[in-house]
Amino acid sequence: MTNGLEARRARAFRRDLSLYRKRGKNFGVADVQVVLAMVIYMLIVIGIGFFYARRAGESTANFLIGGRKIGPWVTAMGAEASDMSGWLLMGLPGVAYFFGLAEAIWTAIGLLIGTYLNWLFVAKRLRSYSVVAGNAITIPDFFSNRFKEEKKVVMAIAALFILVFFTVYASSCLVTVGKLFSSLFGANYQLMMVLGAVFVLFYTFIGGFLAESASDFMQGVVMIFALVIVFLTGTSLAGGVDAIIENIKNFPGFLEFFGLAQPEMADGVQVVADNQPLFGTPSKFDALAVVSTLAWGLGYFGMPHILLKFMAIRDPNELTLSRRIATIWCAISLAAAVGIGLMGRALYPTAFLTPSSAERIFILLSRNFFPPLLAGIVMSGILAATISSSDSYLLIAASAFSKSLYHGIFKKDASDRAVLYVTRITLLVIAAIAMIIALDENSIIFRIVSFAWAGFGATFGPLMIFSLFWKRLNRAGAIAGMVTGGGMVFFWKLVLNPLGGAWAIYELLPAFVASCLAIVIVTLLTKEPSAEIQEEFELSRSYAKEGQLP
Fold it and tell me: Which of 125, 250, 319, 528 has the maximum number of C-beta atoms within 10 A of its C-beta?
């Protein structure tokens, strides 16, 4: 039975890709043009890495946080590009294509709200406080310095959670690369995934944070260009928005805000009859489901790769401009991504019959809409999203070990050069583990990202908010919050979520609430922080309020 199921899924997978391969099995002129566009893009990215390689190698501060010299545009675009990853161009459109509007649009709304609030409330305070608190250059450093730790328990817990969740996060980027190139050229998924990982690793290895931030700006531009041009072109070819709605309104639940489409499945593959995909009775997307999905926005308060961008900007007063740029970029990109999924189902209703393959809809549209050279440029948006995220994930995960564990705990007298060397070695190890996780080509990018997102949001989000806004917070409360939040993500996802019903809500929401409660209860039951810690809190608050550099 298992072999028969696998064979059926394999046949469906090959059928899903047939639209890409109308040109035949030979690698033709069109394919060469697509590759050429992507190669040119990758050479530009590598050039940026080499340009910043010398400065990155001068110190760990330059390698990990760019010496706090990043401008407002690079800060904004870098934060959003590294945040969204290939999930934006493949994962989110895939959800909209397969299940309709509800889950995708409420996720997008939650992310947009979270983006704005994070920039509004956290950015300036963290920039000031991270300097006041011992000039911290990583998130574990900041939390440890915030509580004046002698025994680096907070630092160690934070670093370990970063290592775990960022390794999972990085694997989602490698899945994206593998799906992109295996779909384009019919190449072996695992080979393409490994080659993509090697490229990202090489680029991050030589350039560090400066190269990552500079290229993220460019990649943010490429991503929004790709999303908008595919959406506008597809909408025009489909006859406009009204025509798209007309084409998919007969799919039950597909355009509902409070109903979720239910594809009729047989052995994991959607059933097709008379060249039309079949759907069952829509399930309710009730208030609990909406709140659960909106909870994606809570994750922003705990995302190390975004928080690090706040810490790296050269002037806190420039964060207002960064916030506006980031919010506008996010609104346009998320709307286009959801629209691409819906429009793709209208144009190619039976092209993809599994949730995993549906994440290739952006690739299909790009290949079918544009001449090969332009298609290559557009699909570089996926490559841009993947590179901009995976380099951030790998770099921060490596710094969590080298700076927080190796230098902060195991070898406190290590030289700056030694820490930089350990950072680069750790990059290799983490990348290797991420590649192992990404070996399964049936992995669903959206689901991988949602778990890692919940992990960071619940582990660090409540602690970051309380650290910046509650002077009474102490070290015991911080430890309780991290352990409770991170542990609850695993417990809810693996134990409670499979029970269904109310237990099926997104694990970030209950884990975030549990972390907040743990922080408050444990803090109030234990000793107040020292006068020195409270004075430092007030100092950082005054700097943030007045917009001054510490």
Answer: 319
User: Residue 159 is encoded by which pair of tokens?
Assistant: 């670093």
Q: Which helix (H) or strand (E) holds 94?
A: helix 92-99
Residue 245 C-alpha from the chain's centroid: 30
- Print the domain residue range for 439: 50-146+156-445
Answer whether residue 252 is part of any domain. yes
C-alpha dihedral sign at 117, 119, 121, 126: positive
Element (H, E) at 265: strand 265-266
Is residue 486 one of the residues assigned to a domain? no
Nearest to 127 by CA among 307, 325, 302, 304: 307
Q: What is the pLDDT of residues 399-428, one digit of tens each?
A: 778 877 888 778 887 887 788 788 888 888
Concatenated DSSP letters for 286-336? Answer: -HHHHHHHHGGGGGGGG-HHHHHHHHHBS-GGGHHHHHHHHHHHHHHHHHH
Q: How many other C-beta atoms are found inside a 10 Å radius of the C-beta of residue 204? A: 25
Cα–Cα nearest to 167, from 482, 320, 395: 395
For the four alpha carbons of 381, 387, 393 and 396, in that order, the dihedral sign comes to: negative
Start-end of H helices in 348-371: 355-358, 361-369
Angle at the Cα of 332 from the Cα atoms of 327 and 338, rounded to 5 degrees? 125
Which residue(s) pair with 203 in the sheet? none
Encoding tokens for residue 156? Answer: 């160690």
How many CB atoms are closer than 10 A to CB 151? Answer: 10
pLDDT, tens digit, for every residue of 466-516? 999 999 999 999 999 999 999 999 999 999 999 988 898 999 999 999 999
Counted domains in the chain: 1
Classify residue 412: in a domain, yes or no: yes
Q: Which helix (H) or strand (E) holds 63?
A: helix 60-65
Q: What is the DSSP letter of 219?
A: H
**Residue 176, Cα to own-chain centre: how many angstroms?**
12
Rounded Cα distance between 333 and 335, Å, is 6
Decide: 244 and 235 in contact? Cβ < 8 Å.
yes
| C-alpha span between 392 and 409 (Å, rounded) | 23
- Torsion, Cα 307 312 318 320, to 10 degrees, reads 0
Domain for residue 325, yes or no?
A: yes
Q: 57, 420 in Cβ contact below 8 A?
A: yes
The CATH number given to whatever domain includes residue 252 is: 1.20.1730.10
Cα–Cα distance measured from residue 235 to residue 244, given in angstroms and rounded to the nearest whole number: 7
Contact between residue 20 and residue 183 where contact means Cβ atoms under 8 Å apart: yes
- Of the candidate ranges 43-52, 124-133, 233-242, the one whose mean pLDDT is the lowest: 43-52
